[in-house]
Design a protein that fits this description.
With about 375 residues, this protein is of the alpha/beta class. It has 2 domains: about 120 residues, Enolase-like, N-terminal domain (Enolase-like, domain 1), CATH 3.30.390.10; about 220 residues, TIM Barrel. About 35% of the residues lie in helices and about 20% in strands. Strands 5-6-7-8-9-10-11-4-12 form a 9-stranded mixed beta sheet. A hairpin with a 4-residue loop joins β2 and β3. The two termini are about 30 Å apart.
Length: about 375
């Protein structure tokens, strides 16, 4: 089989919060690149990437240029294709635009492999689970007014979620007010809901320890990104100071920085972002590295594809259901009672929605 061409489309989705129709969070990611890799046997693989903001058109061009480089290659040889892409990018990366551009191509190659073998990718990668637990993300955020927290949390529980995430580091609030917000949510959902908190790298090390040590009794499932992503020692200090598990990793690119994260014991739970990892192939290497360090892994964004990875890996524990990409797909998988069923169709079991480019395309 040979790759004959690739097509890259920029799509933009409306600002929305579809889980419980909560007010959408500002700064949400809504621009993505939908990528199709064509082959001479008529099999087409799909991939997705994003980030870059105003640089997204440059990312689109980068994917297209890598597509030219790999035309004629065998799609069943992802490591060979990756080596050609790395060589073509010539020391631009690892990390940043180069890695984000490699992601949708590697992803599409796994989709092609699944379709060629008539098997779901989840089984090609390990086939451990048929359903995966998913948590609700993005509906209970730092812009949710304090008096709306309890009803918003109730709405998620009523929707069947037993695992939910919120945020701290709310601009303009004192630590005492921040702490009060978390206690309101815990009181609203009771002790048996897994409640997680994302700081999004907004605090310093001492600040994080100072504030978070005052809510250890809330019994949070994890505290995510309490300080900047590559302060491995600072994260390790926070992890050592608190009983609550620390989750980190979503902003790391490629595989090498994860070795730093794990060697320093900077976190208790490793979060992997498919776009920044560079595709399915490096994602699986990071998950394997974490397994060797006796650490669980969780996913970041793009749940429709991540579900096939979380399903495959023994140390994966939880899928983030952040529904920013659901409009990309025809019949997108959606969690029911806090679980997402793993697609069983060949490849990722996904097709781009028929109206994706006509309704959401950006030129
Ligand atoms: Mg996060």
């Amino acid at each position: 089989m040979k790759i004959t061409s690739i097509k890259v489309n920029h799509v933009r989705f409306p600002v929305e919060e579809p889980i419980v129709n909560a007010p959408p969070m500002p700064m949400m990611q809504r621009d993505f690149l939908a990528v199709r890799v064509m082959t001479d046997e008529g099999i087409e693989g799909i991939g997705v990437t994003g980030f870059g903001g105003r640089l997204l058109p440059a990312l689109k061009l980068a994917v297209e240029l890598l597509g030219e480089v790999i035309t004629g290659e065998d799609p069943l040889r992802p490591e060979l294709v990756a080596s050609k892409m790395r060589a073509a990018a010539s020391h631009c990366g690892p990390g940043g635009l180069a890695t984000l551009a490699m992601t949708p191509i590697d992803t599409a190659l796994w989709d092609i492999r699944g379709k060629a073998l008539n098997q779901p990718v989840s089984r090609l990668l390990g086939g451990l689970r048929d359903k995966v637990p998913a948590y609700a993300s993005g509906a209970l955020v730092r812009t949710t007014p304090t008096d709306k927290l309890a009803p918003a949390a109730h709405a998620l529980v009523k929707k069947g979620y037993t695992q939910i995430k919120t945020q701290m580091a709310v601009p303009g609030l004192t630590p005492a007010q921040e702490i009060e917000r978390i206690r309101i949510i815990r009181d609203a959902v009771g002790p048996n809901v897994n409640l997680m908190v994302d700081i999004n790298e907004r605090w310093g090390v001492a600040e994080a320890i100072g504030i978070l040590s005052r809510i250890e009794d809330v019994g949070l499932g994890w505290i995510e990104d309490p300080t900047v992503a590559n302060d491995y020692k600072g994260l390790a200090e926070i992890a050592a100071a608190l009983h609550t598990p620390i989750c980190a990793g979503e902003r790391l690119y490629d595989i090498a920085p994860f070795q730093e994260l794990m060697t320093h014991r900077s976190c208790d739970i490793v979060m992997i972002d498919l776009f920044r990892a560079g595709g399915i192939t490096p994602w699986m290497k990071i998950a394997g590295m974490a397994e060797a360090f006796n650490l669980p892994v969780v996913s970041h964004l793009i749940p429709e594809i991540h579900v096939s990875l979380i399903a495959a890996v023994p140390n994966a524990t939880l899928l983030e259901y952040m529904p920013w990409t659901w409009r990309m797909f025809e019949n997108p998988p959606i969690p029911v009672n806090g679980e997402m069923t793993v697609p069983t169709g060949p490849g990722f079991g996904l097709n781009f929605a028929p109206d994706l480019f006509t309704t959401y395309g950006v030129n």
